[in-house]
Write a structure and sequence with these properties.
Layout lengths: L35 H4 E3 L16 H4 L1 E6 L2 E6 L11 E2 L15 E5 L4 E5 L2 H13 L2 E6 L3 E6 L2 E5 L3 E5 L2 E7 L10 H14 L2 E8 L3 H9 L11 H9 L4 E2 H6 L4 H13 L3 E2 L11 E4 L6
Parallel strand pairs: 11-12
Antiparallel strand pairs: 1-12, 2-3, 2-4, 2-8, 5-6, 7-10, 8-9, 10-11, 13-15, 14-15
């Protein structure tokens, strides 16, 4: 497991004015080079959100976080959050399944961590898939802590959806579909953004995804686990692709076993050994790009 304090401190934004991370239209979003947040649409916090928080001197001592370690809840001042270890860290809110519930909880297996992680909606499941694909994921905790924070109107609480440790740094993430962010949600988002900023992390509220991203990642993920390759189909695909960009269908048909090659090509794309433009639908006409150093 990992210790948070060893995480690289990023150049976190010095303002709570979040931006929508959208790659300009018409510009390719290469699957082998993109980061997860280039694929997402992030909620823009109102500029006034920070002014509603009580950030008087000593606020990091007054605000608290409650985490669960090996089944035991531990409450500490917010200032200690960045020093915690992820070892034994468990969700503070258990995932439940019952008839007639409106949301769709479940468990998502992530290749990056080798474990199942809980989610409370299909929107959260889509985020987990994108993180597994393009985040350089090292560790992830669902429902990582309950935060108690103060505002001008009194004390409130918020539980972020995910703590995400990546090779490039740490994120706290919430998920709300576009159009479902309520005014009452904003103080919790602003407080979590402030907590992340104080820890040297980043924060985002995912409201949606670029066109075609979710369907393409879902297709690629069907072959993300290890595949047996006694016929060395992957080697054939990589060598053929190294000659230059070729359509997906043409690359598959160039092998001796096209039906098998299709699965292996999806596997290579998921593991970013070949590239495609995620900004367009994935079809047999999709151009597959070679990646330097991945010819064998």
């Amino acid at each position: 497991m990992h210790t948070i304090k060893h995480t690289q401190r990023q150049s976190a934004p010095r303002s709570l004015d979040a931006v929508r991370h959208l790659t300009p239209r018409g510009r390719p979003v290469w699957s082998h080079a993109c980061t997860w947040d280039e694929l997402a649409v992030l909620f823009a916090l109102p500029a006034s959100a920070r002014s509603e928080l009580d950030l008087a001197p000593g606020w990091m001592e007054r605000w608290t976080t409650t985490c669960r370690f090996d089944g035991v809840e531990v409450t500490r001042p917010l200032r200690e959050l960045a020093e915690m270890s992820t070892s034994g860290w468990e969700p503070v809110r258990r995932f439940s399944w019952r008839t007639r519930q409106r949301h769709r909880p479940g468990l998502q297996y992530l290749v990056s961590t080798g474990r199942h992680h809980g989610f409370e909606s299909l929107e959260e499941a889509r985020l987990l898939l994108a993180l597994d694909f393009a985040a350089g994921l090292l560790d992830l905790v669902s429902q990582p802590f309950r935060m108690r924070f103060s505002t001008r109107d009194g004390w409130r609480g918020h539980t972020p959806d995910f703590f995400v440790l990546t090779a490039a740094g740490t994120w706290l993430l919430d998920v709300r579909p576009e159009g479902r962010v309520k005014e009452d949600d904003v103080p919790g988002f602003a407080a979590t953004a402030e907590a992340a900023l104080a820890c040297g992390w980043r924060y985002g509220v995912v409201t949606g995804w670029r066109a075609h991203v979710t369907t393409t990642l879902d297709t690629l993920s069907s072959q993300r686990r290890r595949l047996s390759d006694p016929l060395l189909v992957q080697t054939s695909l990589l060598r053929a692709a190294a000659l230059g960009p070729r359509p997906f269908g043409e690359l598959v048909e160039a092998t001796a076993v096209a039906p098998v090659a299709r699965a292996h090509l999806l596997h290579l794309l998921w593991h970013r050994r070949l590239g495609i433009d995620l900004g367009v639908p994935l079809t047999d006409a999709t151009m597959v790009q070679p990646i330097r150093g991945s010819s064998t």
